[in-house]
TrEMBL record:
<dbReference type="InterPro" id="IPR018958">
    <property type="entry name" value="Knr4/Smi1-like_dom"/>
</dbReference>
<dbReference type="InterPro" id="IPR037883">
    <property type="entry name" value="Knr4/Smi1-like_sf"/>
</dbReference>
<dbReference type="Pfam" id="PF14567">
    <property type="entry name" value="SUKH_5"/>
</dbReference>
<protein>
    <submittedName>
        <fullName>1,3-beta-glucan synthase regulator</fullName>
    </submittedName>
</protein>
<feature type="domain" description="Knr4/Smi1-like">
    <location>
        <begin position="22"/>
        <end position="129"/>
    </location>
</feature>
Length: 134
């Protein structure tokens, strides 16, 4: 992620006391191994800087409730055909928001025949397009 975006997020999250616990390198490696995926560099930058935090959507980290490992495993139990993505959030209506192997952010519409839509070419771009500072 661009340094400017990380600093913008840091200022906002610090000012509103909304920063989570940053993930460690070890947590990143363990989670990737457990899920059988390689996290995008944007996602790694985000969780290593902010942990679970808001950036246009609540982005799950690697520990605590609603973490990326548990959310991804839960999703895969219902949709075993989806094995190469990981769940970083949801849209508030139960549709998981995921990152695919290309680093694209996608949403899985569970009520419309499992339609998948790419909503951003990267997590960085999603945040740039959807992060309103209050």
């Amino acid at each position: 992620m661009k340094k400017e975006l990380i600093e913008r997020l840091r200022r906002f999250l610090s000012a509103h006391d909304m920063m989570g616990t940053p993930a460690s390198d070890e947590q990143v490696v363990c989670a990737e191994q457990e899920l059988g995926v390689k996290f995008s560099p944007d996602y790694i930058d985000f969780v290593k800087n902010f942990g679970k935090a808001y950036a246009g959507m609540m982005i799950n980290s690697l520990d605590g409730n609603e973490n990326v490992v548990d959310e991804t495993k839960s999703f895969r139990e219902v949709h075993p055909e989806v094995t190469d993505t990981y769940v970083i959030s949801d849209d508030g209506s139960g549709n998981p928001i995921m990152i695919n192997p290309k680093g694209e952010v996608e949403i899985y519409y569970h009520d419309s025949d499992a339609e998948i839509e790419i909503i951003a070419p990267s997590l960085e771009q999603y945040i740039e397009d959807n992060f309103p500072e209050w």
